[in-house]
Amino acid sequence: MAGSVNKVILVGNLGKDPEIRNTQGGTKVVSFNVATSDTWNDRQSGERRERTEWHRVVIFNDRLADVAERFLRKGRKVYIEGSLQTRKWTDQSGQERYTTEVIIDRFRGELELLDRPRDGEGQNNPGGGYGSGNASPQGQGARSGGANQPGNGGWDAPSGGNDLDDEIPF
User: Fold this and answer.
1) Is residue 46 within 8 Å of 96, Cβ to Cβ?
2) Burial per residue of 125-137, b for 16 or more beta-carbon CB atoms within 10 angstroms, e otherwise
3) Cα-Cα-Cα-Cα dihedral sign, residues 87, 5, 56, 71
4) pLDDT at 153
5) Per-residue model confidence (pLDDT) at position 169
6) Residue 121 to residue 163: CA distance in whole angstroms
7) Residue range 116-159, pLDDT digits in tens
8) Is pLDDT at 35 greater than 60 in this prediction?
9) How far is the C-alpha of 1 from the C-alpha of 4, rounded, in Å?
10) pTM value?
11) Is residue 109 scored above 80 in pLDDT?
């Protein structure tokens, strides 16, 4: 049994289009910010309040980076699964700074598109999930689940009851 767990799950919206760059070794790295929001009613004033948190996400997985480059745009709703990592860097004035990011690395993590693409975006993909490097064009994520679960890209299950008469394709 593991002594600790470093796992982050976010569902939110992109704040701007992703930034794509390549390492010296030719690996594609994609980074973007995801906004998550909490809303509540203030007990004293009765008015509606909202707090938005911004999360920096960095993808080091080549297949997910390709998906992010092709399909992610400002405002898209995404499901992110990764781990937290804090790194230290020095700014232009020589001051040491720290940044905490959600990392989707080569072998762990998940990226799933939860909304439908707008006109002209990702015509071949209805907005499904891409997890652990499994970037399938039909939107099948690395996990399975029922209607409105992250693994099926937020799509509703077909209505109409129990269709046991359907042909099974396998």
Assistant:
1) no
2) bebbbbbbbebee
3) positive
4) 39
5) 54
6) 33
7) 776 655 544 444 444 444 443 334 333 323 333 344 433 333 44
8) yes
9) 9
10) 0.67
11) yes
- 163: tokens are 């269709």
Residues 68 and 78: beta-carbon distance below 8 Å: no
Tokens of 87: 């790194």
Output the six-digit token pair for 136.
């399938």
- 56's CB contacts (< 8 A; 6+ apart) are 31, 32, 33, 99, 100, 101, 102
Q: Which of 6, 35, 9 is nearest to 143 (CA)?
A: 9
DSSP annotation of 134? B
| Under 8 Å between Cβ of 97 and 149 | no
Q: Helix-strand-coil percent breakdown of the chain, rounded to 5?
A: 10, 40, 50
pLDDT at 107: 87
Tokens of 107: 């072998």
Euclidean distance between the first and the last CA atom of the chain, given in angstroms as a whole number: 37
